[in-house]
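Reading a protein record of the kind used here takes only a little practice. To see the layout at work, look at the sequence and tokens printed below.
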Amino acid sequence: MNNNKKWVYECLVESETDPVGLIAYAFYKKSKHEIASKLRDENVDELEIEQKVKAHHDTVLQSTDLLESFNLKAELFLKEVYQRIENKVENELKKEHKKKVEELEKEKKKAYDKAALALKNVAKRHNEPHWSLRSAGWLWNGFAGIFAALIMTFLVGGVVYALSPEAKQAESKQEVVSEILNYIFK
């Protein structure tokens, strides 16, 4: 084996962690495969195919333009892969973000509705007086009605009394007093 032989791999790949060089080498290998496949399709014998593939190998080693073209293809390929990955990740993140925003909006609405309901309940209870005050109010309203009825009775009775003749007034006084006493002591 010739130790002085130059290898395309060494010309394209700077280290085992050189992605551009490794992909450039893959493009070189693809070009060799395409040459051999084309020649096989044309029914060229294997010995001639080997010679043409070796000639291609030697041509690539002698041409910095060909080596650079493999590197350029590799860079473009990596940029395309990077762009696809970036787009995919960005789309997934957008979907996830949208989903999270929708979830948070739902939680926010639930929390708002719950707080609003609690506030309404507190406001209702705040405006309602204590049961003892409500009872006193009920009693007061009842007494107020009674007092109003009595005042109206005395006013109407007074007007009727003032407008009636004197003989009728004495008789009316006696009737009113007896009616009141009957009503109270019944």
Remarks:
- Helices lie at 8-12, 19-41, 46-62, 64-127, 131-163, 166-184.
